Amino acid sequence: MFLLDMTEAGPGRLLFEEIYERYRGLMLHVALGILKQPEDAEDAVQNAFLSLLKISDRIRSADSPETQALCVITVRHKAIDLLRRRREYPEEDMTLFTPPVPGVPEDHGLAAALARLPDRYRDLILLRYDLGYSTKEIAELTDTTRAAVQKTLFRARRALEKEMEAL
Amino acid sequence: MSSRTVTVSSLKKASRLVRDAMLAVLPAPEDCSASFSPSFLRESVSIMKKARSIRRRTVVRQGLSAAAGFVLVFLLLFFSLNSTARAALVNWVREVTEHSALYRLFVPERPADTLPSCTPGWLPEGLLPEPQTFIGERAAGYTWSDASGGSLLTLDLFLINENTQLSVTDTAGFSCREVDLRGGTADLYTNGNQSVLIWTEDGILCQLAGICGEEDLLKTAEALVLR
């Protein structure tokens, strides 16, 4: 309920403000790792917050791992978008530069395969299946269409199945 | 491993593991004390303004949704508990529907020299239509009775014209008064045990009689659908 949200945010302070204060440093760190230029990284962070605003009513708390993951994934997406706009990476290149996520238990085949997916696929799967966002919300976050999200999710699952067969 | 093992639930579990691993390699949010440019901070003010505006809209929207929900629940309770209100609502909906251009387009008007068919919109509790409803060329009769078969309500319809002489006889022991009914007036005869309503409507003389209270008789008459 909306009253509960306002209590969580503290009197006179928005939940979104708390998220902004808490994660902007981390988000800049992530964006800098991709873009290298501080000005570009700041742009990516601002773009990420503008996209997060669109689904801000779905965010329930500021300091949960889910919110942290949402902020990281969103800013990474925006940073990679900036890189793509500079034509440094072609649109169809899904490998990019993000290394596989380390520290995933190898005995969990599906998680290991997911950790090795290209980040664009992996991020969409995390948004959809871990954080529980609808394809419409993901489309708002990533400034794309719902159909494009559905198509990328389909491809991501196919890539995941291939990755599992390779394991 | 087979691709068939990729189910939504296994994907959720794997996604959570990957998310935890992804966050574990990043510094904690409180350890990332970055300094931002003045233009970034200026832009931040604008973003926060947008956030407050969205928040206000969300609160208003949720408030309106909650109010609409309460109203809906109240109306549902009201109409489920109050049969008079339910009958009035059904009548109102029927009148609105019957006066719509679309209804007139698809449902032809009844010719002046034919009797309408009758459907009760509301009946006193326990009453059911009798199978031996009589429908003739110039008169029709409907009976509704309870499970024991005792006749409790009867409706008689007669085609009339400008030459028809109306007179009510055998009214000894009955008191009579005029009541508002179906947008016009009707005569209500009652002797305390039995009540009779007589009115005319669209060239039809209607007589509704019953061993029931005046209120039930009036409610039944109001809810009759004659078309």
Overview of this structure, please?
The complex is a heterodimer of chains A (167) and B (227). Chain A is mainly α and 167 residues long. Chain A is 68% helix and 0% strand. Chain A is built from eight helices and no strands. Chain A has helices at 2-9, 15-35, 38-54, 65-85, 109-115, 119-130, 135-141, 146-166. Chain A starts with a helix and ends with a helix. The model of chain A is unreliable at 1-11 (pLDDT under 50). Chain B has helices spanning 8-24, 38-81, 83-98, 101-106, 214-222, and strands spanning 118-120, 128-129, 134-135, 139-145, 151-159, 175-181, 184-190, 195-201, 204-210, 224-226. Chain B contains five helices and ten strands.
Outline the fold blueprint.
The complex is a heterodimer of chains A (167) and B (227).
Chain A: H1 2-9, H2 15-35, H3 38-54, H4 65-85, H5 109-115, H6 119-130, H7 135-141, H8 146-166
Chain B: H1 8-24, H2 38-81, H3 83-98, H4 101-106, E1 118-120, E2 128-129, E3 134-135, E4 139-145, E5 151-159, E6 175-181, E7 184-190, E8 195-201, E9 204-210, H5 214-222, E10 224-226
Antiparallel strand pairs in B: 1-10, 2-4, 3-4, 4-5, 5-9, 6-7, 7-8, 8-9
N to C succession of SSEs of chain A: HHHHHHHH
- Rounded average pLDDT of chain A: 83
Oligomer: heterodimer
Helix content of chain B: 40-55%
User: Low-confidence stretches of chain A at least 5 residues in length (pLDDT < 50)?
Assistant: 1-11
Alpha-carbon Rg of chain B, integer:
34 Å
Structural class of chain A: mainly alpha
β-strand amount of chain B: 15-25%
Identify the overall geometry of chain A. globular
> Ends of chain A: how far apart?
45 Å
List the secondary-structure elements of chain B in sequence, H or E: HHHHEEEEEEEEEHE
What general outline of chain B do the C-alpha atoms trace?
A: elongated
Cα Rg of chain A: 16 Å
| Low-pLDDT windows of residues of chain B | none
Largest interface by Cβ-Cβ < 8 Å: A-B, 53 and 46 residues
Q: Whole-Å distance between the termini of chain B?
A: 70 Å
Give the percentage of residues in beta strands of chain A. Answer: under 5%
Annotation field: number of helices of chain A: 8
- By DSSP (H or I, 4+ residues per run), the number of helices of chain B equals 5
Question: Largest sheet of chain A at a glance?
Answer: none
